[in-house]
Amino acid sequence: MRLLHTSDWHLGRAFHRVDLLGAQAEFIAHLVATVRERAVDAVLVSGDVYDRAVPPLAAVELFDDALHRLAGLGVPTVMISGNHDSARRLGVGAGLIDRAGIHLRTEPSGVAAPVVLRDAHGDVALYGLPYLEPALVRDAFGVDKPAHETVLAAAMDRVRADLAGRPPGTRSVVLAHAFVTGGRASDSERDITVGGVAAVPAGVFDGVDYAALGHLHGCQTITERVRYSGSPLAYSFSEAAHRKSMWLVDLGADGAVTAERVDCPVPRPLARIRGRLEDLLAAPDLAAHEDAWVEATLTDPVRPADPMARLTESFPHTLSLLFDPERAPQDPQVSYARRLAGRSDQEIAEDFVAHVRGAGPAEDERAVLRDAFDAVRAGATVREAAR
């Protein structure tokens, strides 16, 4: 069986205030053409269909067009909700849409109810695990600790129990939206650290033939059977080196997996340039970035006059201008930035306690801080889900 694995469409998202709806429509057209030309048997969309819980009307219309075009091909499509989606809104009409071959999986209670397809070698069970926010689903899954690993492990236990009751030789695929250990993040993914450590081990997916993951925006292979498709478009300059693509996965008669990357259309390349303004304007090797969306970081010790106007003369599609002035190593601003670089909110708060009273927090105090940060993040997640 041939599967096309994609995720993280983020319909409605802009790139530094540049409207991407046209590029997203081009991607949808490319996806539909790939399904038709490469004889795809099923499409898998692993969450974050939309960029926010209440998407703009134009994004909803594009999603509606995508559903009609996929249904018109007669190729089954399985979609799950991600942490950016409103599961309730995305799942409206799921029962009716299901009859057209578009299978929306947005309810945690449905993780063990697969879409079952059949080919010449037998059944393939496709399980959709929507994004599982630990604080919201802990009771539904009966876990004591509301953490990403515990709720996802509980969901996979239900998947394996259902699979065990199916005919021998049934192959299995899981769609999930999560941060799996070993994955490389970028700047455009929303933080999902509520409930403790966000990452879950790849071993949580043991027992299924293929795990089609969403959430991380870079296409990557965690194991041969556990992969991220990544987002079809770049949504931050941290993705400048990404090759945007989908996975074309062939599932053999014995469950063996072979995968091929199918490149996505690139509306405009990304470039990150860094240096003093005069050097950037004079560098001949940077002329290749004239047509790229550019992020420029200026290192001039003194901020130059009209830097954006001057940059756009050479790089007309400059979207982001940053300043990181060259400073002497003993400069207090340098040492402060270095102390903060790469540190979590928890670590910064603990450092502040140590600075104020001369000793760091005790273990029970660390737990109070951790609970406070989790409560703030959980509150933001609940408010987003309720919108």
- How many structurally independent domains? 3
Low-confidence stretches: none
How many strands appear in the DSSP assignment?
17
Give the overall form: globular
- Relevant CATH superfamily of the largest domain: Metallo-dependent phosphatases
Helix and strand sequence: EEEHEHEHHEEEHHEEEEEEEHEHEHHH
* Residue-averaged pLDDT: 91
Give Rg in angstroms.
23 Å
**CATH-assigned fold name of the largest domain:** Purple Acid Phosphatase, chain A, domain 2
Q: Estimate the strand proportion.
A: 15-25%
- Which CATH first-tier class of the largest domain would you pick? Alpha Beta
Helix content range: 25-40%
What is the CATH architecture annotation of the largest domain?
4-Layer Sandwich
| Count of DSSP-assigned helices | 11
The N- and C-terminal alpha carbons lie at a distance of 39 Å
Strand order of the largest sheet: 6-5-4-1-13-14
**Sheet having the most strands:** 6 strands, mixed
| SS-based class | alpha/beta
Can you describe what's shown?
It is a single chain. The protein is α/β, with parallel strands linked by helices and 387 residues long. It folds into three domains: 262 residues, 4-Layer Sandwich (Purple Acid Phosphatase, chain A, domain 2); 54 residues, no CATH class; 55 residues, no CATH class. Helices cover 33% and strands 22% of the residues. The protein is built from eleven helices and 17 strands. Strands 6-5-4-1-13-14 form a six-stranded mixed sheet. Helix 1 packs parallel to helix 2, helix 5 crosses helix 6 and helix 10 crosses helix 11. The longest helix is centred in the last third of the chain and has 24 residues. The two termini are 39 Å apart. The model has no long low-confidence stretch (mean pLDDT 91).
